[in-house]
Structure formats: structure tokens, C-alpha cells
């Protein structure tokens, strides 16, 4: 029995090992990337549900304060080296690995030192003394990750996503096991801290086990400057993105209680996870693929259009489903103490769908040598959001916070990004709108069905209500897609068939 299972697993790995044409490599790599994110986020979701049952919103908020502080230092010091190496046209970048490793280590030591010694000041800023020892423990994380084998860049550059799957899942599984087991024993936020650090150790070991290349202690100033020339825009974009992604956490942690931050972060994670993780999965393989197609404008345009079709096909119904099932999900899996997160989940779901869709545009610009577009757009978004978020938060609490973020992105940033992206690939606005109209119609049909079905299920236990809504949503959406496709020129079925064909090839 064990031999048969082993043989089946090896057969799947051989089938999905990225090989063949660029299209086949990309599709197979996308399968691994989706597997990474579904597996890792699935484990994280289960872990968060367990921790939400065993810990309090304040405990979740404490870990959130520590991680947002670490994230601030990490984002503002991100060098963009990995992106620069992936974007380079040559297949072999071994000569840059030593310099990359030295820069990586120096940055990690600096971040660790700042994080450790600034912990008392961060605790004072948030008026939360309990966050100080957590921050000092988390300071070990950059020391560990800084020594990762730099050759893991090949996992993306060469579309070796089967290796990246093992690399990322080693951390996800370790974090899940350690955090969940310790949560039952300690019943404190430290279960989360130990799980987080254990995951870093597991990935450090995996980074050397999965690749035979070994970095050396040498540094080339010219190489460093060359890499930074591209990476500086990634650094700037990363810093601005931090303020956009985590500035709201800082604001809530400062204005409100740690427990309120726990509510906000839990709702944000659960609401954005499905559409966001799909976009992250595809972005992992789209960037290197777009980079290879950067000199072929027609092939690049076709690749972008297919990516948008698949993203919208999945992201829009996921958002509609979260909006309609959030109340029953929270009651069934988290318990009544977490009911305040429902509106946050619902608003973030809509925002996440559009964010997932437009993430494709970011990768197009990165691949074609225009990472500055992302920086400039995000800077404009930061200015507008900064002007709105404080009054919205003081007036309406965390619902006001998330409404400001989502509203500005959907109403302002999405049209701007769409216009620039359409110009970049030589397309038309009309074609783009038509492509989105199909999944929007099918998603609205699904949402309407769930809206009218939900009152009839209100007498059922929460978990049964949630299960019925999910099953009904899938059936209605698939039926609506079939009807729309039969009456239009939508090519989603041929795209999905092409994906399956590429996997088999």
C-alpha cells in the first residue's frame, strides 16, 4: 500500500515537473504555485480558527502589532534583489549569488538589531507593554531568513515551482503543527510566536536541501549597484505598499485597543484570502513568463488577457460568496465573540477581488522594465488614502477604515491601472470591459440566489447553513457560466481546456 502511494505521488511529480514549451512550463508552475498558496493558506486558516477558539482577540492583536512592526522594517529596507535577478534575461545568474547573499545577511542583521532595541519604544507607542518581549523574540526571524540560500531565486526564475512548493510548505506545515500544539498547552500568544520562528528554521534548512549551489563570502560592488538600479523601484514600491497595506493596522493599534486590532486583522485576513492568494499564485509564475515575453508584444498581450480571464473567473464569485456566507462562517467556525469581523470580511472580499485582478498589471510593468509605474500609482493612492482614513476611522471605527481603503482602490486606482495596462499591451478598453462583464454577470446571479436562499436556511445550525450556501453557490455559478458562455464569445472554457492540456503535456 505504501509503495503504491509513493509511486502515485512520484508519477504526479513527474507529470507536473515544469518542462516543455514556455506555455506548458508556465501552466505546470502555476499548478504548483496554486498548491503552495492553497496548502499554506489552508493550513493558516485552520490555524487561525483554532487560535481564535483558544485565544482572545487581544492575543491576536498583540501578534499583529509585533508583525506589523517587523513588516515596517522589512518593507522599508527591501532591496528588490530577487526581483532584479528574475527579471534579468540571462538564464544563469550564479555570478551574482555571493553578492546577493552578503547584501541579504547585512540587511537581516540590521533589521534584527533595530527590531530588538526599538521594542520598548514600539510598546510605548501602542501603549501595550506586552508587545515588547514578543517583538524581541520576533527579532530572531530576520536573522534566520537572512541566511537563506540565495539560489532559491531559481525556483521562480527557472519556473521550478515544484521546489518552491516544498520550500514554502515546509514552513507552513511546521508553523501549523508548532502553533496549534502549543496553543493547547500554553493558551497564549506565545504559541503563535514559536510557530512563526519554527517555520523560518524549517525554510532555512529546506533552502539548502533543495539546491546544491552554495554561496560564498565575496562581494562585488559593481554587481550590487547594478542590482540595486532595478531593485530601487521595488524598494520604493515595497515601502509605499507597507503604508497602504499595514498603515491601517498602525492607525487602529494607536487609536483603539489591541482587541479591536485583533478583530480587524482577523476579518481582513479571512475576507481577502481566496482572491488574493489566487493572484499571488499566478503572479509567482506570470512575472518570469512576462519577462520572457517582454520583446514579443502580441504574445505578451495574449498572455495578459488569458490571465485576466482566469483571475476574474475565480475572484469575482469568491468575493460574492464571502459577502453572502460571512455571517454563517463566523458563527460556525469562530464563535460569537468574533461577530464584529463580519462587515470587515465582506468589504475586504470585494476589494480583494479587484486587487487580485489588477495584480496582473503590476507584473506586466515589472517584467517590461517599468517597475516605477507601480511606485507612482501607489504613491498617489497613499496620499489620497492618508487624507481619508483618519476621519473615516474616528467616525465609523474599523468599518470606516476598511471602507476608505476599499473605496479609494476600487473607485480611483482600478480605473487608472486599467487604463495604463490597456495601453501597455496595445489593447482596448472595450475588450477589457466585455471580458469582465461575463464573470460579473455570473457572480451577480450566484449572489442573488444565495441572498434569497439564506433566509430559508436560518433555522439550521450555522455550519449546515454555511455548507448549503457554499454548495448552492457553486451549482448556480457553474450553471450561470455555462449559460453565459453559450450565448456569448467568452473563451473561458477553451482557456481552462488549454490549461489542462498543458498540464498533461
UniProtKB/TrEMBL annotation:
GO terms for cellular component: plasma membrane. Its main location: membrane. Keywords: Cell membrane, Membrane, Transmembrane, Transmembrane helix. The chain crosses the membrane at residues 105-122, 134-155, 176-197, 251-271, 310-330, 388-412, 432-453, 459-484. The keyword Transmembrane helix applies. It is a multi-pass membrane protein. The keyword Disulfide bond does not apply. Pfam families: Polysacc_synt_3. It is found in: Cell membrane. CDD domains: MATE_tuaB_like. Coiled coil: none annotated. Belongs to the polysaccharide synthase family. This is Export protein. It comes from Halogeometricum pallidum JCM 14848.
Amino acid at each position: 500500500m505504501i509503495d503504491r502511494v509513493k509511486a502515485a505521488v512520484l508519477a504526479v511529480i513527474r507529470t507536473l515537473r515544469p518542462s516543455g514549451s514556455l506555455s506548458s512550463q508556465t501552466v505546470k508552475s502555476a499548478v504548483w504555485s496554486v498548491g503552495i498558496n492553497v496548502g499554506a493558506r489552508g493550513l493558516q486558516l485552520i490555524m487561525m480558527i483554532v487560535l481564535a477558539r483558544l485565544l482572545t482577540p487581544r492575543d491576536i492583536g498583540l501578534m499583529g502589532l509585533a508583525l506589523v512592526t517587523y513588516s515596517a522594517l522589512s518593507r522599508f529596507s527591501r532591496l528588490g534583489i530577487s526581483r532584479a535577478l528574475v527579471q534579468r534575461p540571462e538564464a544563469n545568474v550564479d555570478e551574482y549569488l555571493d553578492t546577493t547573499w552578503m547584501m541579504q545577511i547585512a540587511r537581516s542583521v540590521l533589521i534584527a538589531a533595530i527590531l530588538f532595541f526599538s521594542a520598548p519604544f514600539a510598546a510605548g507607542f501602542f501603549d501595550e507593554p506586552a508587545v515588547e518581549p514578543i517583538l524581541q523574540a520576533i527579532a530572531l526571524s530576520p536573522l534566520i531568513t537572512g541566511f537563506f540560500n540565495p539560489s532559491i531565486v531559481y525556483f521562480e526564475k527557472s519556473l521550478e515551482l515544484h521546489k518552491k512548493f516544498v520550500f514554502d510548505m515546509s514552513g507552513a506545515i511546521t508553523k501549523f503543527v508548532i502553533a496549534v500544539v502549543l496553543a493547547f498547552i500554553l493558551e497564549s500568544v506565545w504559541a503563535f510566536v514559536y510557530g512563526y520562528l519554527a517555520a523560518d528554521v524549517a525554510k532555512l534548512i529546506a533552502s539548502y536541501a533543495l539546491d546544491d549551489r552554495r554561496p560564498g563570502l565575496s562581494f562585488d560592488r559593481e554587481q550590487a549597484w547594478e542590482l540595486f538600479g532595478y531593485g530601487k523601484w521595488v524598494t520604493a514600491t515595497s515601502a509605499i505598499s507597507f503604508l497602504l497595506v499595514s498603515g491601517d493596522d498602525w492607525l487602529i493599534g494607536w487609536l483603539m485597543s489591541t482587541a479591536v486590532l485583533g478583530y480587524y486583522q482577523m476579518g481582513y485576513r479571512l475576507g481577502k484570502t481566496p482572491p488574493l492568494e489566487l493572484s499571488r499564485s499566478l503572479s509567482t509564475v506570470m512575472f518570469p513568463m512576462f519577462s520572457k515575453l517582454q520583446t514579443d508584444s502580441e504574445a505578451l498581450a495574449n498572455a495578459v488577457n488569458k490571465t485576466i480571464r482566469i483571475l476574474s473567473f475565480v475572484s469575482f464569485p469568491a468575493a460574492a460568496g464571502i459577502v453572502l456566507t460571512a455571517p454563517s462562517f463566523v458563527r460556525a467556525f469562530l464563535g460569537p465573540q468574533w461577530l464584529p469581523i463580519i462587515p470587515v470580511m465582506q468589504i475586504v472580499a470585494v476589494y480583494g477581488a479587484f486587487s487580485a485582478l489588477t495584480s496582473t498589471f503590476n507584473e506586466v510593468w515589472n517584467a517590461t522594465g517599468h517597475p516605477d509605474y507601480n511606485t507612482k500609482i501607489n504613491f498617489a493612492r497613499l496620499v489620497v488614502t492618508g487624507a481619508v482614513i483618519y476621519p473615516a476611522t474616528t467616525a465609523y471605527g474599523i468599518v470606516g477604515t476598511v471602507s476608505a481603503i476599499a473605496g479609494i482602490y476600487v473607485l480611483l486606482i482600478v480605473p487608472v491601472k486599467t487604463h495604463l495596462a490597456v495601453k501597455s499591451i496595445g489593447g482596448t478598453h472595450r475588450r477589457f470591459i466585455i471580458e469582465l462583464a461575463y464573470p460579473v454577470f455570473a457572480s451577480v446571479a450566484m449572489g442573488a440566489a444565495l441572498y434569497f436562499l439564506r433566509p430559508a436556511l436560518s433555522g439550521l445550525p450555522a455550519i449546515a447553513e454555511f455548507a448549503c450556501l457554499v454548495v448552492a453557490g457553486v451549482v448556480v455559478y457553474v450553471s450561470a457560466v455555462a449559460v453565459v458562455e453559450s450565448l456569448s464569445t467568452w473563451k473561458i472554457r477553451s482557456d481552462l481546456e488549454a490549461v489542462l492540456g498543458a498540464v498533461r503535456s
